[in-house]
Amino acid sequence: MVDLQTQYAEIKDAVDKGIADVIESAAFVKGPAVETFARHLEEYTGARHVIPVGNGTDALQIALMALGLKPGDEVITPTFTFIATAEVVALLGLTPVVVDVDWETMNMSPEAVRRAVTPKTKAIVPVHLFGQCADMESITAIAKEHNLFIVEDACQAIGAEYTFSDGRKMQAGTMGEIGCTSFFPSKNLGCYGDGGALFTNDDELAAKIRAIANHGMVVRYHHDIVGVNSRLDSIQAAVLEAKLPHLDEYIRARQAAAAYYDRAFAGNKHLAVPGRDRKSTHVFHQYTLRLQDTDRAKVQTYLAEKGVPSMIYYPVPLHLQKAYQDPRYKAGDFPVAEKLSASVLSLPMHTCLDAEQLELITRSVKEAVG
Ligand SMILES: *Cc1c(COP(=O)(O)O)cnc(C)c1O
Fold it and tell me: Is the distance from CB of 194 to CB of 184 less than 8 angstroms?
């Protein structure tokens, strides 16, 4: 699904030098490499503060902690997403309220969010799924109206740009009170292990986030709030520092592969290509088809025989996951998400797909659906 070896070969010198510098300096934790990368990511995203942490899941957890949410507070998330989005809500004793998504963009439906707001709602966590921003114009309006926080799950969408109707352009992760991203190796900006970051434009929140990520400590060994230990290590920061200058070119490579897929599948009655939201660019963390009137399991088997990997992101929506069973929800409650779970198929997507690979993949997919 991803080819990190070919990508590494292209940037080997810069990565190796960055890692060697960290080892020689022995500043493995909280070293200058982390600060340098954070400042460069601030410049890239336009976020006033970038606070690196251990991974994207930690970023989401720390975000909810920093906003001072209390057990019983309701947090609205889409039901069609990666588990981490709701996991941290549950872990903190908050109440996840899940909503359905839009069939075309596969992102959180603003109408569903509006219907889910109650007096207990405190925050909305939109997920910019597969690399395309959720309908932030509508979600921001709902949040304003009801005085709710927005924590963006931008783990799949770093570098995606959203244009509001008044012309303002903002990057994924910089539109809400807090944005969260992940540097998991396969993400669009991936390190060689685990990593993540929070984005905020609010100085006070930034200070609180820094303290929470560091054992709730502001002055050394004085703990004002309960925190966690979550940090990006310097070696990962050095890898990210070497990759960040290439992010735009990586995004363009993904978009070019997506355009090839779009052209190859246009008009095929079994294949619906990913729907686009005109307000957002799409950075294609995943290229996800919706299959129609064809047997997905057979399609996957055929592709595997041809040496073409494919994956189902995500086979079970949150409300039907065993650990998240809740008397409030049952099968059939979120028909779009359930239909997506039964029909999506993600194709190989990375920065080094060549014409030969794209030709094999698209030909095999078309043969597989008949
Ligand atoms: C990857 C991902 C996360 C979690 O990131 P980790 O760094 O793996 O903890 C959270 N939400 C979404 C949507 C993701 O894709």
Answer: yes
